[in-house]
Amino acid sequence: MANFEAYQEYQRIEDFEEDSPPGEEDLLVHVPEGLKDSWHHIKNLDNFFTRIYHFHQKNGFACMMLTEFFELVQFLFVVTFTTFLVNCVEYDVLFANRPVNHTGSGQNPLDRNKVTLPDAIVSSQKCTERIQNNSWIIFLLIMAAIFWIYRLVKVFCNVLSYWEIRQFYIKALKIRMDELCNFTWQEVQDRLISLQREQQMCIHKKELTELDIYHRILRFKNYMVAMINKSLLPVQLQVPLLGNVVFLTQGLKYNFELILFWGPGSLFQNKWNLHPKYKRSGNRLELAQQLSRIILLMGLANLLLCPFILVWQVLYAFFSYTEVIRREPGSLGARRWSLYGRLYLRHFNELNHELHGRLGRGYKPTSKYMNSFTSPMLTVLAKNIAFFSGSVLAVLIALTVYDEDVLTVQHILTAITVLGVVITIARSFIPDEHMVWCPEQLLQCVLAHIHYMPDHWRGNANKSETRDEVAQLFQYKAVFILEELLSPIVTPFILIFLLRNKSLEIIDFFRNFTVEVVGVGDICSFAQMDIRRHGNPTWMSEGQTEASIYQQAENGKTELSLMHFTIKNPRWQPPQESSVFISHLKEKVHHDAQGGPSTQLLLSEAPLCTSLQSNESGTGPDNLLASVLAHPILTASGLQGRDSRFIPPSTAASAAASVLASLSTSQLANANRGRSHGLLPSSLHHETTMYRSDRTVIDSMSNSDSRIRSNALHSEFASAEMSLHAIYMHELHQQSSHPQRTSGQWQNPVPMRDLHTNTGLQARSGLGSSISMPAPVHLGGWQEEEEEENEDDQEINSGSAPKQGTGSNC
Question: Where are the compositionally biased (Polar residues) regions (predicted)?
Answer without folding.
Answer: 734-748, 757-772, 796-810
